[in-house]
Amino acid sequence: MYMRKRAHVLISGRVQGVWFRVNTKDRAQQLGVKGWVRNTPDGKVEALFEGEEEGVKQMIEWCREGPPLAKVSEVKVKWEEPENDFKGFSIRY
């Protein structure tokens, strides 16, 4: 059964300057997940994933490792109600 999910994610560790955002966008597009990703001023990466439950869960799992140069120390996930307000996946600045 198709279940739409939305997850607000905060990733800590060595996650800036390692192509985390670009790789997150590529992975999300492969999985059909919508939303956005951005760097935070305190050195973390923040993302919002929305889509089919399996795709969103795969994105969260991918964030636990990240791209090859990343060293993820923590991933915090807050589940939210889906709002269907995204047309695609973007990098925010």
Q: What is the chain-wise order of helices and strands? A: EHEEHEE
Count of helical stretches: 2
Largest sheet: 5 strands, mixed
CATH architecture classification: 2-Layer Sandwich
CATH class term: Alpha Beta
Note the beta-strand portion: 35-45%
What is the CATH topology? Alpha-Beta Plaits
Helicity level, as a percent range? Answer: 25-40%
User: What is the radius of gyration computed over CA atoms, rounded to a whole number of angstroms?
Assistant: 12 Å
Order of strands across the widest beta sheet?
4-1-3-2-5
Measured between the Cα atoms of the first and last residue, the distance is: 35 Å
Class by alpha and beta content:
alpha+beta
Mean residue pLDDT: 97
How many independent structural domains? 1
- Poorly predicted regions are none
Silhouette = globular
Number of strands: 5
Please tell me about this protein's structure:
The protein has 93 residues and is of the alpha+beta class. The chain has one domain (4-83): Alpha-Beta Plaits (2-Layer Sandwich). It is built from two helices and five strands; from the N terminus they run βαββαββ. The chain has helices at residues 20-31, 53-65, and strands at 4-14, 34-39, 45-52, 71-80, 89-91. Strands 4-1-3-2-5 form a five-stranded mixed β-sheet, covered by helices on one side. The protein is globular.
